[in-house]
Structures
1.
Amino acid sequence: MQTFCNIECKTGFYLAKNEIRCVRKGDPLGYSWAQVQGQAVCQAISCGKPPILPHAQASKHPALYGVAIPYSCQLGYSIDSSPKGPKDFRLVCGSDGSFNVTKDLGCYKVKCGKCPTGEKYNNSKVAEKEDRFYSEKCHYGCNVGYTLDAQPIGKTDFSLTCLPTGEFSEPKTCDPVSCGAPQAIDNAKALTKGEVAFPGFAEYEVNEGFTIINDVKPGQNFHMQCQSNGKFSEIIPPKEWSKIAKDSCLVGRECEPAKPEIEPVPCGKSPEVKNSIYDDKDYFFGQSLVYECKDGYTVTGTIKGEKKPEVECGSKGKYLWNKENKMPECLPVECGEAPEKKNAQLVTRGVPSPVTAASKVLMYVCDAGYSTAVEDNPYKPLHRTDAITCQATGKFTEFTDCVNINDCSDSAFCGDDGECVDLDPPTGTPFDDYKCKCNAGFEQTIMKGAVDTKQCTNINDCPDPIKDACGGLNRADERRGTCVDGDQTYTCTPSAGYKVKKGKNETCIPKVCGKCRKLKMPTA
């Protein structure tokens, strides 16, 4: 018998665990009894994580029944929008598993009121008319002719921010525009020093090498006026310009005269410099032209020579290089004399001295019996030539050495009974440029064919003359035996009636029949 007990938890708690049960003890057939054992657990109901309320900070950990979670308004917020209003409140986890959140409970921006005006805000106008709240801005714009820093490119607007205290931040002031120091004008220098304020003038003088009146005349002056917008006006030319402006309009017609321009003295088209790359166009005083010598060329013809000479257009309308009235040259880089190569001959004709990067390719041919590939065909070599050139670095390209051709490249040479030995230096005749190192019992033999070769062949060890070998001829002019050649030796095959006699010089001798038998003669 195991019956669980019903457990009821208090308000705000739930039954998380129930192990209480009635258990039978003892012997069912004898004495037994019932006993309650185990435990039950009631846990507090969880409301989960506290709700996120705008602009309020609280714990992010889940809360249980009865727990109060404190909330604090962020800086610049209060419960009633007042700068000194309450900023803290609590939410309690209820027995239903939810927090006691009301509709209007929360944190609201602090109110600063209307955008301020008055003496501090002279020379400016505010855009907003409504009340401002925390972090909101009042936008002001300076009147025409005023900026925040009195500079021509200075800002003309600023803003105030509603602070957490319910006050506005301090304003900036709009000051009268200053045109500052005379602005830089290309090809002219300012004679006026210091700042120029509206409606003053800045005086300039045209630089040497430039003109504003179409005349190469020193001391040409003009003016620029500081305007209310903080910028200088266009160039106000000298009196001499009036005639130029008048002549630019057709007679009897009204038109706007051309604007005065400060023009540099022209030098004309860029001169040609051979073996270089350059921008072919008109250049003017103050401009420079770079001649980029082509790869393999320098101004001096040496590897350390200048490669990008720069030429400038002078104030007199002349091109100048190194401040002199002359033009640079791009000369080919020198590599020196044509080098000699071992076991090879230079076959290129008309080789200059010295060889330069502009020179033609130097062709070399290997001597007879030599090649750039050691395994080349000795009878019909395919790699006897190699070429080098003078590089832009002032050095020749790498040359592949001419080496002795391996005349033993054909495995058939000398056969299986010897070793082919390549001869160095070669004679240039392939047949004469190797020999056979034959094994013992073999000798070098010339084998005739479409291409004569050398082979290792077996040496005939039979005695010479062959007719005297193995006993020679008997009185009947018949051979006593036949000589059979072997490996550094020979053997004899005896003819009928003969046998082999072993020894240093094997031979064939007659067989011995023994003594003649005595025969009995018949009697009469």
Note: Residues 62 and 163 are 34 Å apart (CA to CA).
2.
Amino acid sequence: MTGSPVYFMSPHVTGISRLMSFLSWHECSPTFCPAIPVPTNPNGSPYPATIKPMRVRLGDIAHTRSGDKGDTCNIGVIANDERRYPDLAREVTADRVKHHFGGLAQGKVERFELPNLGALNFLLHEALGGGGTVSLRTDAQGKTFGAALLSMEIEVPE
């Protein structure tokens, strides 16, 4: 079936990995997972001159999930409505996420686009004080990072 996701499960996967393996895409090529283009008008704005942008909290148009892998915090940002994904892709950049968390994200921040899911995934390296078993932080597993990101303000069309 062309253009449809094909879910697969490895016979070697067990436990929670087996439970969550339905999230893996069997086929994901550049034509199957296209990047969302960001159009611009002559003055450099991503909106037509007739549309005035407004500032909203990320939490008004998306929800998040977060957790840890060692000293790296993983944050998934999912658009509440598929029409808002281009706004997320344009506004929620790795640099803005790193700036939002300030000194908490000591290492680099990576962003991965998942347009088929209307989502972005961020890895904040060196963000958990060493990780769950060695960190003295209250949130050594990064569970509150997603909620904290929802307070970031972004611009969307009115």
Note: The chain has four helices and six strands.
3.
Amino acid sequence: MVPEAGAWAGFASKTPAARPIVIDFPYETPVPSQAQFSPLMNAHHYKAAYWVGQRVFDGLASFTEFESRVNDIFEEKDRGDVFEIFIEGYLATQAITQHTEHWVVGGIPVEMRERFNLPNDGTGIDGIYEERSGNQVAYQVKYRKNHNLTFAEVAPFLGITEKFTDRVIFTNASSLSEFPLAKVVRCVE
């Protein structure tokens, strides 16, 4: 039985052939009306087409199933990339973030990098989204196979983004150090 497409069905990335690929997360229910979301978006992450093509996101029934698939990926960097793509889909489809625009590392405008004094190479930050109010929010994505995240792992993000009013850390970690001045969003079922 093929589950119905969930709220994540609208998130797509372009393959090198410029054909859209849909990431389908059917467990996201209820499905809000399309009017609540931005129009169909192309993924910004440079590896989105590859990982979507690997079918990592196909037919998921739970976040636990997603974690299981991600944990089967050998390289830690690749696991992190897949989670960054997942979070990009989250930002693109979930009304709770109340964002109007979104940039990932490598696509952050020069003017914005200069205003917030961000390094050119994007070290320590995964992206920025703009809230409906116009406020820009820096975010960092941290996937941990062992579910442990230390302050030392996020300290560079907190230092680099000190000029932002709001900062968010998206993680699947179940144990966290104290995080001053940052909102931590733990991804679970």
Note: The radius of gyration is 16 Å.
